[in-house]
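User: Modeling request: complex.
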Amino acid sequence: MSLSQSNQALDILLCEDNLGDVYIITNALQESQIKYNLNHVTNGEAAMGYLQQQEDYPTVSRPDLVLLDLNLPKKSGLEVLQEIKSDPKLKAIPVIILTSSKAEQDILKCYQHYASCFVTKPFDFEEFTSAIKKIENFWLELVQLPPKFAPHGSS
Amino acid sequence: MEIAPIRPPVEILLGEDNPGDVYIVRSSLTDSKLHHNFYQVNDGEAVMAYLHQEQGYQNVPLPDLILLDLNLPKKNGFEVLEEIKADLKLKTIPVVILTSSNAEQDILKSYQLCANSYIVKPSDYFVFFQAIKNIEIFWLNLAKLPPKLVSNSN
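Assistant: Request completed. Predicted assembly structure:
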C-alpha cells in the first residue's frame, strides 16, 4: 500500500440520486478499515460542479475515486464520464460506473469513454452490499489510486 | 429463443516477462473455479501482435481482460497501453496494470493513458496470489466486461 493511501483519507465522490442506493453504499462502506470521506451529489450537473470546484463547492478536494450512476437528473452519467475523461485535470481519476443497467450498449459505451469499470447494481439488498464490499476490497485496498497531488498543469 | 446461451470462457491475456510472476498469476487462476483461457506473452511487441492477430497469433481470441506489466522488453507497457486505448477495436478491453513499480509518476501516467486499474505486485508470494484472486473476484465475477464486438453489427 502506498504512503498516500495509508496516511491520508481517500476522497470518494458518489453521484447517485436514489437515496435507497446511497444508504446501502454508505452502510456497506462503513465497516471499511480504510480511512475515507464519502461525498455525495444527486445529479450530473452537481457532479461536474463538484469536480471542477465551482461556486457551490469551492473548498472540496478533488476525489480519488468516483462512483457514478448512469441515470442521473440534469446531466446523465455518460455525459459526466465524457467530461471527466476529456478534461486533462480530471481524466486520471478512476470512474466506477454503478448502475441498474446491464444493457450491452451501456456497457460498451462506458468502456469506450474510458470508464474504469462497469458494475450492475444487484436488486437484492444483501447482494448489493456484497458488491460494494467487493468494490471496496479491490479499489480501496488493492488498487493504487492516482497520487493526490497530481500536477494540474497551468491552472 | 428460450435456451440461455452457454457462457463462453473468459479469455485472459497476460503481458509479462518474469517467469516467476507468470507462474503465480497462472496458478492463482488455475486454482479458481473460473471457466477461463489463459494466454501469456513475454514482450510488448508480442502483446500487440497478439491483439492484432498477426503472424503466429492468427487464431487467438481477443481477450476479455488484459493484465499488463509495465517493464516489458521490445515495447514497454505504457506504449502498449497507449496503443490499445487509441485503437477503436481494442480500447474497450479492460487493462489492469500489474507491476512492481509503485512510483507515483508511473501510477499517474498509467491512469492518464486510461489504464482501468493499477496494481503493485506484492513481493510476498502468498499476498501476490491473493491479489490475483482479488482481481478475479472484482473483474471476473462482479464487473460487467464489455461485450465482444462482432462483425455483424446489431
